[in-house]
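So, can you check?
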Amino acid sequence: EALIADVNGIINTPSKIIRQAERLAAQKQHQDVVWKFVAEWLNIQTTVPSETMALVPAPLVGDQCNYTGQCKTKFAGLAQSYDCANSASANSVCMCDGARCDSLSGGAALSLADAAQLETRKFIDYIVDNNLPFSELFNANYSFINKTLAAHYKVPAPAADWELYTFPAGANRQGILTHASFLSSNGNHGRDLNTIFRGKVLYERLFCEKMPIPPNANELFELNDQIADRTVDPICGACHNKVDPIGRIFDLYDDNGGLYESQELFGEVTASADISNTYDSVAELSSAIAGSES
């Protein structure tokens, strides 16, 4: 609609452009567009439908429960409020936040992967809905988690699932780069190789730097067997000296975005950005990104 209006000369002043932008931003589709943009930008997998909690009608299953506590146990982590509807009948059914529990996420509690994606989606929606600055993506000391993610992050469980949650000091969680969705999407390769994948996505997509052209596949296979240190060899080092130091900043986080017992490596940014420096943590790097003018 905005494109048609522009072609017809209707949007021809700054104030009209602002009004059109505000109109588009108020639509539900705007949230979907922003979510998909951020996910693609940071290589976050979106295999779970964006409306994770959307209802899928399912037939009644006889006598699911006798009391509410059974629903809380059976569908733990799926909702904030539970109820055993028709508990005195043979057609009792567990209700989650007023909807049938067995029509949410296949009738089971959200998996870690589902919960991780939903966390990031809710986080981005919150920033958009409240017109917060772009830097909030990296600066925020809060998110939206459930009990499953709290256990994964090794932080106290939230009072209610999916409400705004402020991370305690020392949790090593700040902004989207410490979300399990980002870390697992750019992880799952083991501690050493995660360094490469996480460093590469920041170098190319966040710092807008161009990677050197790598050797062909056969040459890479031979080099992998011959070279002990990929940063020393002139061929391998052309790429690895750029991405590995960035990836080392994420050394504390395992394949799925949980925490190792300790961080063994510390890294630096050597890109042509105004944040080139050494960093001891992802939180420190995230704060620098949030304040960057590049």
Summary: Residues 48-61 have pLDDT under 50 and may be disordered. The two ends are 32 Å apart (CA to CA). Residues 268 and 278 are 4 Å apart (CA to CA).
